[in-house]
Specification:
Elements lengths: L10 H4 L7 E5 L5 E3 L14 E5 L3 H4 L3 H11 L14 H4 L18 E3 L2 H7 L2 E6 L9 H17 L6 E6 L3 H12 L4 E8 L5 H9 L3 E5 L3 H14 L3 E2 L5 H7 L1 H9 L7 E6 L4 H15 L8 E7 L4 H6 L30 H15 L4 E6 L1 H12 L7 H15 L8 E6 L7 H8 L39 H18 L11
Parallel strand pairs: 5-13, 6-7, 6-9, 7-8, 10-11, 10-13, 11-12
Antiparallel strand pairs: 1-2, 1-3, 4-5
Helix pairs in contact: 6-7, 6-10, 7-8, 10-12, 11-12, 12-14, 15-16
Length: 505
């Protein structure tokens, strides 16, 4: 649909122009810095940054109901720059012209309601938001679309040239970074650091396929992150981890989509998200806060952050009820099937502390909660979800397990409904499913497979058949007929088929 065909009162807003006054703001000393330089920490006190719009008040002058119509009508546009996270351009990267925006098919992932059987098992109405349907098969594409669009903007302005983008990763970040950097080749190249043998083969194949320089180092993600931080502080490289405030800005689109999918009514809603480097929960809170400040939504939904007991530093921090006595202590993580969340010292922890306090204050009551779950619960709920028609990854299993635990603890009421974040595609973590089915989990995971959830292929090869088909050696005539009849009979016996043909009546 063309903008000229839209209602006249909406037409001036449909195609956004560069606007706003974006700056980096330090969460430590409160100083502001110009965005024309790529900053990751405060030059004065080394704390993390968030991006703020000094002229945000211009967005508050547009009534909430007009914003609803703007976003709804933008759905109808064929302009690629506004198809992804930049449908919400004024709230994501308002200073950029549409010509700078990189769109590879990210965002607007489906929100699928769980079937009645799974909702009954969980004890609550809920939806999976399938982030695995992003182009690199994880939610990280949202932040990369933002970070690389801004780098593209700087390249177009001649402010940077020949960018080398680097990141540490447990798999998904490296896949997204390599994909978006490859699109901007030759102006941008990428290098990724991965913990040796701590990334699934599927995830490792992605940055290799996109041409990134891939380095594996001993240790875990936290060790990779220290190396990447050192590189960004001493060499001319662009950091693409969630320490990069542009990443957080892009991931805020998750909140905007949920708001729009519920027609901007978030009363009695709960958003459940796993915590890794804490960038995603930061972005989700910040996104809802912006829509709330602009009058686009009238209620702040509950936020539930979930961690495995094997990597739960954020949960431990908030388990102290007295805020004055809380002290963040990094931890040594244990092996987890929620591999991307296996982080003991999340870089966005200062952002979490700042935004949790702000979120709860604006809501007037506690709206942000944290819980922990076992590795057993993560795998069992992931498999149960997928047996009921979903494509949940292990982190989706972690989120669902957390929802169930929070419901039992009374943190979530019967009348509320939830959106559960499945951060990546299930195929990225299929190796853990196979370990479960094969009963081969190392003892460190503390997972004992439930026989009722185990599945395996059955080889049907009737022993009395002299000849069977093989590649390049098909059966014909009577031999083929005998093979089909004998195999069919064995399958029918296994499935306990009764022999009467289905007629449709």
């Amino acid at each position: 649909m063309k903008p000229k065909d839209f209602p006249k009162d909406i037409q001036p807003y449909i195609i956004p122009q560069p606007s706003g006054e974006l700056i980096y703001r330090c969460l430590g000393c409160g100083n502001d810095f110009d965005i024309q330089s790529l900053l990751y920490t405060c030059p004065d006190c080394r704390q993390v940054l968030l991006i703020y719009d000094r002229s945000f008040s211009r967005l508050q002058k547009i009534p909430g109901k007009i914003w609803h119509r703007i976003f709804d009508y933008r759905k109808m546009l064929s302009l690629s720059a506004l198809k992804g996270i930049y449908r919400y351009h004024e709230f994501v990267g308002s200073v950029m012209p549409l010509a700078s925006i990189i769109y590879l098919g990210e965002a607007h992932t489906p929100m699928i309601e769980a079937n009645s059987r799974l909702q009954e098992a969980a004890g609550i109405r809920f939806f999976f938001k399938n982030e695995g349907q992003n182009p690199s098969a994880s939610f990280k594409d949202r932040g990369m679309a933002s970070a690389l669009s801004y780098i593209n903007f700087l390249v177009q302005q001649g402010l940077v040239t020949e960018v080398l983008a680097v990141c540490a990763s447990t798999g998904d970040t490296s896949a997204a970074a390599a994909l978006y950097a490859a699109y901007l080749n030759p102006h941008v190249k990428s290098a990724v650091l991965l913990p040796h043998k701590k990334v699934t083969p599927q995830q490792l194949s992605q940055p290799l396929g996109n041409g990134a320089a891939v380095f594996e180092i001993p240790g875990v993600f936290d060790d990779c992150m220290k190396v990447v931080e050192h590189l960004s502080e001493h060499y001319n490289v662009a950091l693409l981890n969630s320490k990069n405030a542009w990443r957080i800005l892009g991931q805020e689109s998750y909140s905007y989509e949920i708001s729009q999918d519920f027609e901007f009514d978030l009363s009695d809603k709960v958003v459940v998200v796993p915590i890794g480097n804490a960038g995603n929960i930061t972005a989700i809170m910040n996104g809802f806060l912006k829509f709330y400040d602009a009058g686009i939504i009238n209620n702040l939904p509950k936020i539930l952050g979930v961690q495995s007991r094997h990597a739960n530093p954020v949960y431990r921090y908030y388990s102290e009820p007295n805020a004055a006595q809380r002290k963040f202590v990094p931890m040594t993580v244990k092996p987890s099937v929620a591999q991307a969340a296996m982080i003991g010292n999340p870089v966005s922890m200062p952002r979490v502390i700042h935004l949790v306090d702000l979120y709860n204050r604006l809501a007037g009551i506690q709206k942000v909660f944290f819980c922990e779950v076992s590795e057993q619960e993560i795998m069992d709920w992931e498999l149960l979800a997928n047996r009921n028609g979903h494509i949940a990854c292990t982190h989706g299993g972690e989120s669902l397990a957390g929802l169930v635990a929070a419901k039992k603890q009374g943190l979530i009421a019967d009348h509320e409904s939830a959106v559960v974040d499945s951060t990546a595609h299930a195929l990225k973590f299929s190796g853990f499913q196979q370990m479960y089915f094969d009963r081969q989990f190392p003892a460190d995971y503390r997972i004992r497979p439930d026989p009722s959830l185990i599945n395996a292929p059955v080889l049907v090869r009737p022993g009395d058949l002299e000849k069977i088909p093989a590649p390049g050696k098909p059966l014909v005539g009577g031999e083929l007929k005998q093979f089909v009849e004998r195999v069919s009979a064995e399958i029918a016996q296994i499935l306990e088929l009764n022999g009467s043909k289905y007629t449709g009546r």
